[in-house]
Structures are given as C-alpha cells and as structure tokens.
Amino acid sequence: MKIVEKFKALPDKIRAIPKKLSDKLAGAKEILTQGNGKVTASMLVMGLGQLIYKQWVKGAMFAFIQIAFIVYFVLTGATDLFGFFTLGTREGNAWYGVEGDNSVVRLIMGILAIMIIVLYAAIYVSNVKDVYRTQCAVDTLKKPVGFKQEAAALLDKSFHKTALALPVIGVCVFSILPIVFMILIAFTNYGGDIVPPALVDWVGFANFGKILSLGQFAPTFFKIFGWNMLWAVLATALNYFAGLGLALLLNKKCVKGKAIWRAFPILAYAIPGFITLLGFKFMFSYGGPINYYIQQGGGEAVGFLGLDAKWSARFIGLAVNAWISIPSTMLLATGILSNVNTDLYEAARVDGASSWKQFIKITLPYVLFATTPVLISQFIGNFNNFGIFYFLRGGLYADGYFLASDTDLLINWLYNMSIDNNYYSIGAAISLVIFVITSIISLTVYVLSPSYKQEETFR
Amino acid sequence: MRKTLPALIAHIAIILAVIIVMGTLGLIAAGLGAEENDKFTGEIERNVTLRILENDTAKEQGYLEELLNAFNEKYAEYGIKAVDANMDQYTDLEKGGPYGYGPDVLYQANDALMKYVDGKHILPLPIEQLECVDKVGEKAWEAYRAKAGGQEFTFGVPVNIQQPLLFYRKDLLPENWETEWDDDKNGVPDVIENWSDMYRFSQQIRRDSNGAKYGYMKSLNDGYFASGYFLSYGGYVFGGEDGKDVSDIGFSKNDGWMGGRIIRQLASVMNLECTEDTITRNSYSRMAQGTYFATMTTPDVYTLFIKEMVNAGYTEQYARDNLIMTDIPALPVSGDLEDESLGFKDMIAMGGVNGYAISSYTKAPNAALAFVNFATSYGMINRRSELLGISPARSDLAEALGGLNETIKENLDKGSIYVMPSVRALAQVWTPLQTYCATIAKDMLDNKNVYAGAEKLKEGIANVDKQIYDAIHTLGGS
C-alpha cells in the first residue's frame, strides 16, 4: 500500500513541472523584452554589458570564458565533438606508425566536449541574468554591485556556490563522465574484434535487441535472476542478523575476554577474500580435509561443490560469504550499540519489558535506522557478488543453463558471456539491466525505510 | 526584443560556425593519411633502451640477467641497453602498448602472441635477416604465420616447444617388469609406451594396495591435457586449413567421441578427485610419497617433483634417477583401452611454441630485431635449455642435445603436437570441455553409466562443440 501511495503522489510532482517551466520561460521572456543595449551587448559578447557598466573584473572574466571556449573549440573541441558522432574516421596502423583515431578516446573526449558546452551555456545564461540584474538595479537608481561586494558575497551569502564549485566539477569529470561513458558503450559495437585500433560504431539499441532476441537467453536469465534475488536477500539477512547477534553477544557484560573474541572475526575479515574462498574450495573438495574425515569415518566422499551439487554449493556459498562479511557488520553494529541511550533499556525494564521485547522495540529499530543505507549497499554488494561462486565453483556449465552454472549469479553470467570474451558493449548493456533492477529495489527499500521516513527520529 | 533576440541568435550562430568549421577541418585533416614506411631499415638505432618481457622462470633462474648482460656487452658500441620490462609475464600488449606502456620485445606462447596480430600490435618480422631462419623447423614457424591484407607474414620467432609429458616413478615399477610388462622386449616398460598397459598396470596397483595406491593419476577435467584424447581420434578445435575457422568446432568430428571413452576408462582407475583440480595440486607430494605411480604435465615443473621427493627423504640424486620424464604413451587405434587388436597410434597432445615478438609500438624496431636475433642464437638457446630445461625449437640444438628434446621436435614435425590455435576464441573452449570431461569421469566413478554407450558419448561431445560455438558466436556474432 505504501508503495502505491508513493506512486500516487507522483502525478502531483509531474503536474508541477509545466508550472516551473513556464516560470522560467517568463523570466527569459522578461529579459528578452526588457533588456537594454547593455544586456544585448552581453548576449552578443559575454561580459561586454558588465564592462560597459564598469564592472571590469566580472566583465573580463565572462569575456575570458567566451574566448577560452572559442579557443578550446578551435584547437580541439570541435574535432572532439564531431568525433563523438563519428567515433573516428581513420583506422590506425601500428605497423607503419599511422596513429589513426582511437574510438574510445574519441567517445570520452566527445562526452567532455558536450559537458563543456553545457557548462558554457549555463555560464552564458548566468552572464545574461547578471547583466539584467545590474540593469534593474541601475534602473532603480542603485549602483551596480562592485567586484569586492560580489567576492565578499561568495564567501558569505553565496558561500554554498564557492564551496560546491570544485566538487561539482570533480563529480562531473570523475563520476558522471565515466558513468555516461559506460552507458553509451552499450549503444556501440565496442568489443570482440572491434577494439582500437579498429574503429567502433554506434549501433543504437542493437545490443539490447540481441539480448532480448536470444532464444537461449530468457530461460537462463530468469533461472539465474530468481536465484540471484534469493541469494541477495538470504546473504544480506544472514550477514546482517548474524553480525548484529555477534555484536550483541560480545556487548554482554558477562562475556569475558571480549577483545580476544572480537579479534577472531576481524582476522577472518582481514584475510583477502579470494584466499579465504580458495581455502574453502580446497576444504570442500574431494581431496580436502572434510572429505578425508568423512572417508576416515567410513563414509563416501561427497561432492560438496561438484557438478551436481546445486544446493549444497549454494549453501556453502552462503556460509562462506557469511564468514567473510559478518565481521564487518559486527564492527558496525558494535559501534552503533555503544551509542544507544541506556536509559531506554532502564525504562523498559522498569515497565517489565522482556529482553526480546527490548531488542524488538529498542535495539533493532535503532540499529535498523542507522544502518539502512549500509544494508542497501550490502544488498547491492551481495547481488553483484562476483567472487564467491567464481572462486568456489567457477569453470563449469550446468545442464539447462546457457553458458552458466546453477550457482552463477547474474554478474558471473555477465562475465562468462561478455568480459571473458571482451564483448564490452554487451557487457555494458547487461550492466544497465542489472543497474535498473538494483536501483529500483534499493530506492524502494530506502524510501520505505525509517532512515528516510523518520529522518529526525533519533536526532 | 528586437535588439536582444538577434544578439542571442548571433552569439549561437558564431559558436555553431566555429564548431562546424573546425570540426569539418578536423575531419578533412584526419582523412589525409600518413605515409606508410617500413620499420625494418636494417639500420640499428643508437642510444636506445629496449624493454624485454620474459617469463618468470627465466627471471628466477637468472637466465634473463645473463641474456641482457651478454646482449648489452655485444651492442655496447651502439649505446643500446636492454632491460627487464618489469611487467607481469602475461602482460596484455593490446591494453598498454598503444599508450606507450608495453615492452619492446615479448616472450610468450604462440596463442598469446598471435592474438595481437588482428590489432597489428606486433610487427611482421623480416625473418630472413635472422640467423635461426633455416635452423627452426617449418612447423614451429607455422605457429607464427598469419595472413594480413592477402599476404602472409611471420610475427614471431620460435624459441621452445611445449608438450605435455608423462612423469613416472621408475623405482615403483614391479621388479619383474622386464618379464611381465615388456611384451615387445625392447627394454622399455609397456606401461609407459601405451595407455592400455598403463590402464591395466593402474588396475593392478589399486588391487594390490587395496585401493590405497594409484597408477596413473591426473585431473581429467583439465581441458588442456584432456583435449589430446579427442584430438587423437580425429577431433579438432577449430576447422579450416589453418585451424582458425571458429565457425567450425570439431571435438566431435571423425571419431573424436572415442576420447570420451578413454577418459571414462582412465577415471575408473582413479578416484573422484580426478573430476576437480585436486590431483593437479597434490600430484607433486603424492608422487613423492609413492601414492601415485605416474601423471602427465609440462616439463617446466620437473624441479617441483624433485623438491618434493627430497622433502620426502630421498637424496636429490635418487630423485633425479627415478623421477622420469618421457613422451606420452600411445593410444589404442580401437579407441578402447581394453581392445589392443588394432594396435596403437601416437597420441596427439595439445601443445604450443613459445617465442619472441616485437611490439609495433617500439621506438627501436631494428635494435629489437637485433635483440631477437641474439636471443635466438645457438649459444643463448643452449644456455636457456641448460638453465630452464626447455625443449628448443632449433633443430640443430635439439639434435645435439638428443633425448626428449629430439623426440619433442619430431613430435611437432610429425603432427603429434597440436599447436594451440592462435585465436582469441580459444578462451571459450575450456569451460565446456572441462565440464564434459568431469561429467563423464564422475559418471563412471558414481557407477551411473549414463555415458557408457557410444551414442551418449557422441551426443555429449557434440554438445560441447555446440556450447563452444554458442559461447563464441551468440553475443559476438553480427
């Protein structure tokens, strides 16, 4: 019901969009109709209006930005922008030292050029708004704002702009650009034999079409997706509650030598995951110690991770993942539990609440509130947990599965089909599908969680 | 509005004009091709540094240092300095080379090197300028040939031949082997001459030791070694004249399915560990303990067996005298280890040819060629063989060294070594093949016997071909 209510609220937000747009348009229309000659000058050449108003520094800065933008486009920007569409026109030939175009670099530089155009457009609008503001001020017999005043405002009233300018640029270059690049790769034929120096081309939605049209794909996809969801839920719940349980246990006053007991799980956490996984693989192998003792006891060797060990391999995967992940949850919960107000427990005891009631009504809501974002990230991490089954049971295909085994998660299947064979574009397309699935789940869980709904509860 | 709007339009027009004019000029400039020129002029570049990528064993055993010192001394007058590239031995030239991070000269297996040809990451070599050109056999050169633009080029210089060998404990042979296990009276135990006798001998060891000891033991799910059983009966990896046609997968072709029957029979004298990599991991210690009589692996791990025998209490001399490396046994023509009526034929094993190639991104191709010429000279390859125990690709040296070196060289020449196809799609072969091999071995050991009949074995290996085809073409195909 709660989800339905959230979705019902959506049309209101959507209805508000045209209103916001019309307000913006009205502002633009006002500038276009009411703007004087100086505004016109700044529209033609950035900063010119400001210079006429004798706002020398600001005017020069705007003018410099326009000049820099034009110089950038003369030197490389225009070629980069064209390269975004063509992805290169000349194939390199290293045998003869012919450098050629690197399609991947062309794509990245093209995205950068587009981002610079967007940034320039934003600065241009701000330049026009600024000169119009000055016009309005002068029209009301005020003096144009001087550079010193503006600079002072940037350190005071508009400090958020100063503080956020560099991080926003950083986020654009180091975060948004790679994400856009990865998304766009899904619309090219990059991969397989088509890697630089070969030229890459745009293929539209062909990769998605290829995935959907594969007859073998759908049955395996749904089998793996079902197991992947089950795995992510079970693994996250197991790690979370076992970690919390361990933290609560080690928080008890009656436990002696807490430091030593806490050290053991941390040791498991400190050992690199793949070494732990290879160790467990050996332990459960036919020649490993577990089978050795089974045979010594008169039993027959068991293929815990063998070809037809579907469920035993899955349970071992869950257990090994718990071994690796519980310590981090335990550490997190230990830190959070140390901040719980002990008066709450005292009051609960006075009211006659049992230990279980105290856990359900005080501890769990408090820890859940504080750790929901971590819980979501653990869910995503488990959903995309590549290592567990790659190391424990990699290198085999199961009957009824297309290029996958019955313990593979979507991420392992993606690796088998794409990265293992350098089909980056297909890999990007499947990644987008996984991204959409995990985003929907995470956002839904987060929006419904106390961390979002009752943000102020524990403040 | 009359003034402001034209100014806005003019501004946009100016920016668009700059973008369109400069972008178009950029496209025109890109269309003007640079002049093509041959890199191997014969004139050795002076005062350059060559980064040499060698394998880890060559570094650990000190061979690379010897090689670099000798080369640097000889070419001191040119100011050339060859240095260790200090990169992982499996460094991918394709990823770093175009950006200037790769080595100048690479030593890798033929399948690793030849995958660089498509992207032109390694140079076609003027091998006629090399001293070893007529000393290396034709089959070894073939591993490094490929067509480009309708013309055939050679992209690597063979150094050594890789072939799986049989390792066995001579001291574990029965005392009466000359009377009981040498039917042809040639002074060589039959158990190492053909797989049928190895199979029977393994059965006998298991019976006599009450299941505690084994004869031949090997992880049968290892596709590299197991593929030989299918190849020996007419199967192949990829079709086409050059064995690179990835649209034709052929493990099931001809009588390839018989390889599956051999694997099942061999599994019957092992245990379930043969369905996973346990045996590969513990064969060194189990051979040293005498739990296993024989196994199959590559010659580069010989010293590991010796070390384990020394750890087990034997003297090094005893270990070297009794841990024997020999050519792999012959297979029955019938494709059945229990039927010798049709005689035996050589087993074809998957192998390869390691060699040198020159990066297309080197600034000193002629100096790099001089290095390759030096490193493949008789003296250096002989030293490499002494230190690393490799089987040289040079015929003159293989003949001079004799023994296994000569046998391996002959095996390559007569086609008993199936050189790993130098195509990227080879990576898709292993998982389906090893899954199938493990399945049929487990089927035998679990007494399920689903794969006991020829039809089921044919169906199984045909399915492997299909899986490999799917893996290569489903997403990669246009």
List keywords for this structure.
heterodimer, A: 459 residues, mainly alpha, MetI-like fold, 2 domains, 73% helix, extended, B: 478 residues, alpha/beta, seven-stranded mixed β-sheet, 19 helices, 17 strands, 16% strand, globular
What does this structure look like?
- The complex is a heterodimer of chains A (459) and B (478).
- Chain A is mostly helical and 459 residues long.
- Chain A folds into two domains: 35-204, no CATH class; 211-453, Orthogonal Bundle (MetI-like fold).
- In chain A, 73% of the residues lie in helices and 0% in strands.
- Chain A is built from 19 helices and no strands.
- Chain A has helices at 2-34, 37-44, 48-52, 56-86, 103-139, 147-154, 159-185, 206-213, 217-251, 258-270, 273-283, 289-296, 310-337, 342-350, 355-383, 387-393, 410-417, 424-448, 450-453.
- In chain A, helix 15 packs antiparallel against helix 18 and helix 17 runs antiparallel to helix 18.
- The longest helix of chain A is centred in the first third of the chain and has 37 residues, at 103-139.
- The mean pLDDT of chain A is 86.
- With 478 residues, chain B is α/β, with parallel strands linked by helices.
- In chain B, helix 9 crosses helix 10 (258-268), helix 9 (223-231) packs across helix 18 (430-445) and helix 18 runs antiparallel to helix 19.
- Chain B is globular and about 105 Å long.
- Chain B starts with a helix and ends in a 5-residue tail after the last helix.
- The model of chain B has no long low-confidence stretch (mean pLDDT 90).
- Classes of the chains: A mainly alpha (459), B alpha/beta (478).
